[in-house]
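User: Could you go from structure to sequence for me? I need the amino acid at each position, not a summary. Structure tokens:
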């Protein structure tokens, strides 16, 4: 039985298994600029959108390593259609045809989400020979926003993952049998990541978090989650706002468009922010001959977004007096002005590798459960 951790966010899919962690350890001797993102993080990170394969274009004319890192997926739940998914999907320049899984109602029952769940399982299963030669049996650990941590959404996401899955990737058939699904609220994932090691055991110098009042500010792609945990139990105050990274990206697009830069999209802004060094500035390059600075627009939008996020935190928790620790997490926490947050909240800290903190927390929780059952 293999342990898989899957975090399907509104903008990104994060995946962890023993194999992804092994790859990170094996790459320890490499220079940082030679490592893949998976080798750096110990997790696979892919977009939360995909394409009908017919909209991808024909890669057969590409030369060698110029081919994009995009694969062809066929799921048994929609076997008459082929889909394209991979880390280079943004390079296709087909944003208007992306099939998105972002949503706030019935997300886990939608066909698009079920397909992405199958793709995620297949992406992890590709590392295991059992999936190719027989059936890979797994336990899946995942999470949902706190407002979705109720019976109907939890049952829906459990039903999506549980059972047998057959997916072909580039023509190779993979068989996965999900024997059990563990679902946690997202903020608990971050705390698990801080408190537990990779085998699921408590890290001694972090054990205090188990007994503290901890506020988790999770800034994701589609949502801003603010949750209070007392002795690792969900408590109040808390809130969930549909105010994630896409708000910031849209604001940058609007400012750039008003400034005369046409054609830039939220997907391109996401990639520019991810790949750029803030010290060098931010540039939109619609083609190889032109480059437009969007640095001023980015800085203005980030300042406004930071203020909005911090104001939401203040109005949610009302007082910081009883809080022992505040953890900022989620991929978008890397984009806000961190010093402003630390000035306003003296017990705040930003989680390392925050983009994958939740998925590692889900993985560590699963390892702790498996360890407890074996004792």
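Assistant: Here is the amino acid at each position, in order:
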């Amino acid at each position: 039985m293999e342990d898989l951790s899957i975090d399907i966010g509104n903008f990104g899919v994060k995946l962890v298994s023993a194999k992804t962690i092994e790859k990170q350890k094996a790459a320890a001797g490499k220079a940082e600029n030679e490592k893949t993102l998976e080798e750096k993080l110990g997790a696979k990170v892919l977009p939360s959108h995909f394409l009908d394969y017919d909209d991808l274009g024909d890669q057969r004319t590409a030369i060698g390593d110029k081919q994009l890192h995009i694969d062809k997926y066929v799921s048994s739940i929609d076997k008459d259609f082929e889909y394209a998914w991979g880390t280079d999907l943004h390079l296709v320049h087909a944003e208007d045809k992306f099939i998105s899984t972002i949503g706030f109602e019935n997300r886990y029952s939608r066909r698009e989400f079920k397909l992405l769940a199958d793709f995620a399982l297949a992406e992890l299963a590709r590392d295991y020979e059992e999936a190719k030669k027989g059936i890979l049996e797994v336990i899946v650990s995942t999470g949902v926003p706190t407002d979705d941590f109720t019976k109907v959404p939890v049952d829906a996401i459990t039903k999506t993952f549980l059972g047998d899955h057959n997916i072909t990737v580039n023509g190779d058939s993979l068989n996965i049998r999900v024997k059990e699904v563990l679902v946690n609220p997202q903020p608990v994932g971050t705390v698990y990541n801080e408190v537990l090691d990779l085998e699921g055991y408590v890290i001694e110098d972090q054990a205090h978090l188990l007994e503290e009042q901890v506020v988790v500010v999770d800034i994701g792609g589609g949502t801003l989650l603010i949750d209070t945990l007392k002795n690792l139990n969900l408590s109040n105050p808390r809130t969930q706002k549909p105010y994630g990274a896409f708000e910031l990206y849209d604001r940058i697009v609007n400012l750039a468009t008003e400034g005369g830069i046409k054609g830039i999209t939220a997907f391109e802004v996401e990639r520019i922010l991810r790949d750029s060094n803030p010290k060098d500035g931010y540039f939109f390059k619609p083609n190889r001959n032109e480059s437009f600075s969007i640095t001023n627009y980015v800085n203005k939008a980030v300042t406004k977004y930071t203020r909005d996020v911090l104001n939401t935190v203040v109005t949610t928790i009302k007082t910081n007096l009883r809080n022992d620790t505040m953890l900022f997490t989620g991929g978008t926490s890397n984009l806000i002005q961190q010093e402003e947050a630390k000035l306003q909240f003296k017990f705040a800290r930003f989680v390392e590798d925050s983009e994958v903190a939740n998925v590692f927390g889900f993985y560590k929780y699963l390892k702790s459960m498996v360890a407890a059952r074996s004792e």
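One structural detail worth keeping in mind: The two ends are 17 Å apart (CA to CA).
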